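Recall the central idea of this unit: under ordinary conditions, the amino acid sequence of a chain determines the structure it adopts. In this exercise we apply that idea directly, starting from the sequence alone.
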Amino acid sequence: MFPDYTYVNLENLDQRAAAVEDPKAFLNYYGTGGVIIDEAQHVPELFSYLQQIVDENKKMGQYILTGSQDFLLLEKISQSLAGRVAVHHLLPFEMGEILTDAARQQTLDQILFTGLYPAIYDREIPAENYFPSYLQTYIERDVRSLKRIGDLNVFRRFLQLCAGRTGQLLNLASLANELGIDAKTVRAWLSILEASFIVFLLPPYFKNYNKRIVKHPKLYFYDTGIVCSLLGLTDSVQLKTHYLRGSLFENLIITEYIKKKHHEGRPPGCYFWRDNSGNETDLLIEDKGKLTALEIKSGTTIRDDFFKNLIRFQKFSGIAQEDCCLVYGGETTVPRKKVKVCGWKTFFEDCLY
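Accordingly, the structure predicted from this sequence is:
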C-alpha cells in the first residue's frame, strides 16, 4: 500500500540496537519522506522523538508504526502518541478475502481448523505446522516483552485452558483454581492475550428487559486455527465430532463481524445476551441505533429448535422479525417466515445488509 515508504523492521537486532543507542540519529537517517517502522513496540524510546518531530514539522502520515501489540496499552507509548495518531487494527483475513479465490475453496471444518492468519495462505504453510511454531514464538517473545512470567509452562497451560473455554462465560476463579495461581494473576495474563490480539471479551448486553441478566463477558479468540492447535487437533476431520465444534463456529461468525468493522475503521458495537435461566442470544449488534439479533448454529440441517432463542428474544425485546437472523453451517440462504436464515459463507451480506 505504501511502496514509496522506507521499511524498517525492529525485529532485526542490528536495526533495533541502532534505534536504542541513538533514537534521534536513527530517525534522522531515514528522514521524513515516509517510513514504516515494524514491531515498533520494541523501542518505546522512539516515540518521544517522533512526538517532537511531528509537533515541529506538522507533517501528517510520515510514519507508519506497526506491531503485534496494542501500542496504546503501553504507558510510555500512549503518553507520546496522544492526539497525534490514527489507530487501525489489522486483524486476520476475513473469509471473503480467501473464498473469492476458486483455488482456495474450503469446507467449514477446513476454515475452522486452518484459521485465517495471512502467513498460512501467503506462504502455503500447513496449519498443523504453522501454529505450534507461532505459539512458541509468541510465548517466548511477546509474552516476555509484555510481562515478567516466572513459569512459561504454566502460561502455556493457561492458553490451553482458555481454548477449552471458547464461547463460554469468563470465570477467573475457575481458571485460577485449575492453574494453582491467584485470580489477579489470571486477570493480568488475560490482559496480555488481549493486548497481543489473541483473545477478546464479548460484553453482555445490559438492557434488562425485566429479567435478571448475566453480567460476565464471554471469551473468544481472534482466530479459530489457534484454538484448534491449542486443543491438540491435527486434522480438520477431527472437528466433525469434536465437542467444541459449535463454539468454534460461533467464534468464527462473531470474529468475522468484528474483523469487518475494525477493517472499516468502525467500532464493532456487538454483545451477547443471556438471562439467569439460560436463555441466550449469541450476538447482538447495535449499529446506527438499530439492534440486530443473531443465533449461530453449526448444524447443516435447519431444525425448528434452532429458532427458539431468537423467537423468545424477539417477543420480549420487541425487535422486528427482519432484524433477527439465524446463521447456520450450511451454505444456502433459505427463506423463512419468522427470521432470516443465512449460510455461513454469505451471512454478512445476507443477514446484515
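The two ends are 28 Å apart (CA to CA).
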